[in-house]
């Protein structure tokens, strides 16, 4: 009996030391090198070339935007849970969506689906202003807090139904929707500038969806193009 207790004690000690070692390697400069490796192996190697996007992905600390229990996984090649049944998108998908938007330093961008605030932070490193709308108040408020604390002062967060965009700040040079819709919301199309770009996943919930690039010509003509299959959480709200 005593031997069994000793064995259990030793197993627990070993387990605790393994956990603390794992946490230790994720401190300080380690995050910078994990981020560098994320950009090289998950993003550049998959063909993302826009240097502004690569630089933004290198500079934004993804680990500051995830819940504490997800921090050890912050630079892994996958989406992560952020609470309320929602996710922070896979880093590669964030980079791909940014590249397809052909962002410019003077752009004003609308994001629908703030979630953790990470994607908005990445865009904010490339453009002049980011307006982001989140329908779940607890997520929107948390994102607002992190963005403020980390100094992303050109990002404005609103709690509301992003299906209707953010009319008072429209028109936008680019719009990114980070939840899957069954159709392109007409208010978003209206709030896109002539010459503007929108990236939006289209498709039913829990199905393979299609990431769509929408381009509005300077004459207002709309052209759509499918980029790749994706899997996003569903866009809520809109007309019921
Ligand atoms: N961009 C986020 C990030 O960087 O963490 C990830 C977004 S997560 C995949 C999708 C988000 O869209 C969720 O936080 C969800 O609550 C939000 N959402 C869904 N429908 C929405 C709507 N109609 N308006 C605004 N946000 C919405």
User: Would you list the SSEs in sequence order as H and E?
Assistant: HHHEEHEHEHEEHEEE
- Mean pLDDT across the residues is 92
- In the CATH hierarchy, the third-tier topology is known as Rossmann fold
User: How many structural domains can be distinguished in the coordinates?
Assistant: 1
CATH superfamily label: Vaccinia Virus protein VP39
What small-molecule ligands were found? S-adenosylmethionine
Q: Which residues sit in consecutive blocks of at least 5 with pLDDT less than 50?
A: 16-25
N-end to C-end Cα span? 64 Å
Note the overall shape.
Answer: globular
CATH class: Alpha Beta
Structural commentary:
The chain has 240 residues and is α/β, with parallel strands linked by helices. It is built from 7 helices and 9 strands. Residues 86-89, 112-113, 115-116, 118-119, 133-136, 139, 161-163, 178-179, 232-233, 235-237 line the site of S-adenosylmethionine.
């Amino acid at each position: 009996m005593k031997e069994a207790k000793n064995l259990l004690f030793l197993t627990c000690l070993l387990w605790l030391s393994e956990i603390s070692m794992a946490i230790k390697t994720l401190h300080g400069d380690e995050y910078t090198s994990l981020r560098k490796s994320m950009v090289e192996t998950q993003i550049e190697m998959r063909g993302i070339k826009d240097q502004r996007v690569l630089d933004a992905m290198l500079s934004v600390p993804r680990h500051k935007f995830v819940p504490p229990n997800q921090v050890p996984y912050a630079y892994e090649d996958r989406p992560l849970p952020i609470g309320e049944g929602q996710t922070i998108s896979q880093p590669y998908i964030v980079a791909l969506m940014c590249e397809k938007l052909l962002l410019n330093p003077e752009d004003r961008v609308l994001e629908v689906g703030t979630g953790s605030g990470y994607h908005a932070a990445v865009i904010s490193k490339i453009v002049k202003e980011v307006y982001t709308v989140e329908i779940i108040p607890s997520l929107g408020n948390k994102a607002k807090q992190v963005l403020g604390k980390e100094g992303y002062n050109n990002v404005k967060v609103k709690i509301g139904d992003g299906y209707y965009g953010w009319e008072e700040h429209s028109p936008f040079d680019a719009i990114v929707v980070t939840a899957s819709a069954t159709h392109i919301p007409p208010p978003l199309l209206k709030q896109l500038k002539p010459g503007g770009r929108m990236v939006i996943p289209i498709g039913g919930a829990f199905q393979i969806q299609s990431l769509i690039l929408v381009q509005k010509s300077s004459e207002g003509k709309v052209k759509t193009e499918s980029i790749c299959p994706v899997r996003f959480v569903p866009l809520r709200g809109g007309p019921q």
